[in-house]
Design a protein that fits this description.
heterodimer; A: 523 residues; 2 domains; 75% helix; B: 301 residues; alpha/beta; Rossmann fold; elongated; disordered C terminus; membrane (chain A); transmembrane helix (chain A); ABC-2 type transport system permease protein (chain A); transmembrane (chain A); nucleotide-binding (chain B)
């Protein structure tokens, strides 16, 4: 591991903006929740109301996890329940960026040729990420204690955040050894993260009802860290489980590293056809080849999500039957209609927000192709820029539609209320397309900042997470296109807002395409 | 149309940086034209303007009689481009990329494709991510050469090829040349390649053309090195315009002489009596070095 220290400094230099940013922002997030809760809940009774509601709302449980108690600390931990997923995503991307992505780009050859040990690059990437997670955890602990919360629970809360980062740094370390492309490694690691989230979600919602599938949560690393239950049980042994998982995955990654050549993956590339099939003769045919894996992955993931959402829908009915008070309150805030309607409204909303990531990913492929020099090859032939970009946009438009249709159909069929549940999922699409069109606009007008499109989803997610807590003015909430989607299946379907969203998406996307047609394609 | 590429006073700016500063480039139909210049001189930028990937800020550019920006798609049916740094999709095989690019240009000759694959010793079944730089370049070259197009734009096409494959490349280009109807713009750093293939060449520096013409014409512009042993003292040689770096010791003289001063210089040598004479024509290397190196050597004509 000679040279790890120097490589660590290199990583810290390269990430000097982004690393402190996520460490600080995510670390301070619980404190933001705490102070806003303290403002909102002026009496204990208000807080208890909210806690009971949250504990029973299947949509909330799907998003955040179980809420075992009603203390202020537990409420904050629960409300930050989606943050471990965000931490996992950031840490796995960081580790792969500094391992497999460097290797694929050939930067590692340069580095490995100097006096640097075999494991040094992996070790440095892991050290940077895990130190970042540790500091983030310390910020959580310090800020929560500073906010007047019990020290023991605050430490456990910090451990929850830190471990979330460590576990997925380990997952990414293994994924980075498997494939020779960073894209493939990212796909594997994100798939593991997605599976962990879905398992946790299924187990937790089942735990609310009959509990038959609660064991699902114990298959998920996200389930483990949440079962530390800071400020409540303060259980240490799920944390030990997470720590053991981290150590084991690091060991596996280190071992796999010795079993492969630099630049190669463990999953070997096979030979392919010597001639192109008849389909590969247009920009669209190429786009299909480039997007089909992604489409399949997202659709598969959303099929699983649909089965889980539909399957646990029954538990929601049980909860409603067991406590009528909850049902009343729930119906009040969840819009018109029954408790299951409100549940499927919120699951559709969650799915819409997640699938917007896919839409943006598919749109940004245009920029990827440009940066990697692939676009130059295509645009050097008799292919119009709009046709080239259009091939990718086709999948950005229809890919999310396919995934949402599959999710809605399976959720509806499993639950036994096909049409309305499917409709609720499909109703999200115009909002998804608006977010995708933001990416197209950025690609056309400010290509160097195209990645900012991810920020658009982050804003919508933050509005969802903070929205009703901070009580933003309505115009702030209106920024998110998801605010304007009709609250199906409970509410009536309204055509106008959906049409307006589609028109906005078309106008913004069209402006982006026009700009793309007129600008330079830089080398 | 006698000129496949006609660029005059081309200007391209990136923010405050001027990449092309009044560049001229004329390529006649049917010729192989060498395009030379130090790194960062603007070769690739020029090609990208010609491909309609970039707009220019001034001057004019015509390609196959059309506007490279406005008529890009139609013009691209008649040309093939090989970028200097070829990358392609990790999950497509070399054979698939060759077919795809050929079809997107409007079709390629399957016999010629297979012939080229054999001559370049390419395994078309490998996936993009497993090819070396040289093999990626072969893929792009085969796709370009197998297309029936009028113009080939090749940006340092042999920079990753081994000497054997470089030789194959030369043979193929010479074959193209014999056909007589294909125009090739070849940006290169390999002097022997330029010498072997190009009819005419253009040397650019800092976004400007500094020389253009046939190799012989360009040679004419540079100095010949003369070494002579003389029987008597030579007079007036040092004062002759066009004679440079004269060293005279014990009846031996060594000097560089401009082409136009060659005759008077030789006359004065003959007048002094010549025992032996060695005349060295300017090598291509010297030609390049004169233009590549900055400072007075580059600006002297």
């Amino acid at each position: 591991m000679t040279g790890t220290g120097k490589l660590l400094r290199l990583i810290l230099r390269r990430d000097r903006v982004i690393l402190p940013l996520w460490v600080f922002l995510l670390g301070i997030l619980p404190q933001v929740y705490l102070s806003s809760f303290e403002k909102i809940f002026t009496t204990d009774a208000e807080r208890l109301d909210y806690a009971h509601l949250g504990a029973a709302n299947a949509g909330f449980v799907a998003l955040y996890g179980l809420l075992p108690g009603d203390s202020m600390g537990e409420l904050v931990v629960w409300r930050a329940g989606f943050v471990p997923v965000m931490i996992g995503l950031i840490t796995l991307l960081t580790v792969i960026r500094h391992t497999r992505a460097d290797e694929e780009a050939g930067r590692s050859d340069l580095i490995r040729a100097t006096v640097v040990g075999r494991w040094a690059q992996l070790a440095a990437a892991l050290l940077a990420t895990m130190l970042g997670s540790l500091v983030m955890g310390l910020i959580v602990t310090a800020s929560m204690i500073g906010g007047g919360q019990p020290a023991g629970g605050s430490v456990a809360f910090g451990v929850l955040f830190t471990l979330s980062g460590w576990i997925f740094a380990g997952v990414a370390a293994i994924a980075a050894q498997l494939t020779s492309s960073a894209r493939g490694a990212r796909m594997i690691a994100v798939l593991v993260l997605g599976a962990a989230y879905v398992l946790r979600l299924g187990g937790d919602i089942s735990a609310q009802g009959d509990g038959r599938l609660e064991w699902l949560s114990w298959l998920s690393p996200i389930g483990w860290v949440q079962r530390i239950f800071p400020y409540g049980a303060n259980d240490w042994w799920p944390a030990v489980l997470g720590l053991l998982f981290t150590v084991a995955s690091l060991g596996v990654a280190g071992y796999l590293l010795t079993r492969r050549d630099l630049g190669a993956g463990l999953l070997a590339s096979r030979l392919g056809p010597a001639h192109a099939g008849p389909g590969l003769s247009s920009p669209f045919g190429l786009a299909w080849r480039l997007h089909r894996g992604l489409l399949l992955g997202w659709t598969g993931g959303f099929a699983a999500l649909g089965l889980v959402f539909g399957g646990v829908g029954g538990s929601v009915v049980q909860i409603a039957e067991s406590s009528s008070g909850v049902a009343d309150t729930f119906a009040k805030i969840g819009g018109a209609g029954s408790i299951t309607d409100a549940y499927f409204t919120s699951t559709a909303g969650i799915c819409g927000l997640i699938i917007a990531l896919y839409a943006i990913q598919a749109c940004l492929r245009i920029r990827d192709e440009e940066q990697s020099g692939h676009a130059e090859l295509i645009l050097g032939t008799a292919v119009r820029r709009t046709a080239w970009a259009g091939g990718h946009l086709f999948f950005a438009l229809l890919g999310p539609a396919v995934a949402m249709a599959v999710e809605g159909a399976l959720a509806g069929a499993t639950f036994g209320d096909f049409g309305p549940v499917l409709g609720a999922s499909l109703a999200q699409l115009p909002a998804v397309w608006v977010l995708g069109s933001v990416a197209v606009l950025l690609i056309g007008v400010l290509p160097r900042f195209a990645g900012v499109a991810w920020g658009a989803v982050a804003v919508c997610l933050l509005l969802l997470l903070f929205g009703e807590l901070v009580e933003f003015p309505q115009w702030v909430m209106d920024v998110s296109p998801f605010t304007h989607v009709p609250q199906l299946p409970g509410a009536d379907f309204t055509v106008v807002p959906e049409m307006v969203l589609v028109l906005i998406a078309a106008a913004v996307g069209g402006a982006g395409l026009t700009a793309l047609r007129r600008r330079d394609i830089p080398a | 149309m006698t000129e496949a590429i006609d660029v005059e006073g081309l200007i391209k700016r990136f923010g405050k940086v001027t990449a092309l500063d009044g560049l001229d480039l004329k390529v006649r139909t049917g010729e192989v034209h060498g395009f030379l210049g130090p790194n960062g001189a603007g070769k690739t930028t020029t090609i990208r303007v010609l491909l309609g990937l970039m707009r220019h800020d001034g001057g004019s550019a015509r390609l196959l009689g059309g506007d490279p920006w406005a008529d890009a798609t139609n013009l691209h049916k008649r040309l093939a481009y090989v970028p200097g740094d070829v990358t392609f999709w990790p999950n497509l095989t070399g054979g698939e990329v060759i077919d795809l690019l050929g079809r997107l240009r409007g079709g390629l000759d399957p016999k010629r494709r297979d012939d080229l694959i054999e001559r370049f010793e390419l395994d078309p079944r490998k996936k993009g991510r497993t090819y070396s730089k040289g093999n990626r370049q072969k893929v792009a070259l085969i796709a370009a050469l197998a297309s029936d197009v009028e113009l080939l734009l090749l940006d340092e096409p042999t920079s990753g090829l081994d000497p054997l494959m470089e030789e194959v490349f030369r043979e193929v280009i010479l074959q193209e040349k014999r056909r007589g109807d294909r125009t090739v713009l070849l940006s290169s750093h390999i002097l022997a390649e330029v010498e072997a293939l190009c009819d005419r060449l253009t040397i650019i520096r800092d976004g400007r053309s500094v020389e253009s013409g046939t190799l012989d014409e360009l040679r004419h512009l540079t100095r010949t090195t003369i070494r002579a042993e003389l029987t008597g003292p030579v007079n007036g040689l040092a004062d002759l315009a066009g004679v440079h770096d004269l060293i005279s010791t014990d009846g031996r003289v060594t000097f560089d002489v401009d082409a136009e001063a060659l005759e008077p210089a030789l006359k004065s040598l003959v007048a002094a009596g010549v025992r032996s004479l060695v005349s060295q024509p300017p090598s291509l290397e010297e030609l390049f070095l004169r233009h590549y190196t900055r400072g007075e050597a580059g600006s002297a004509k």
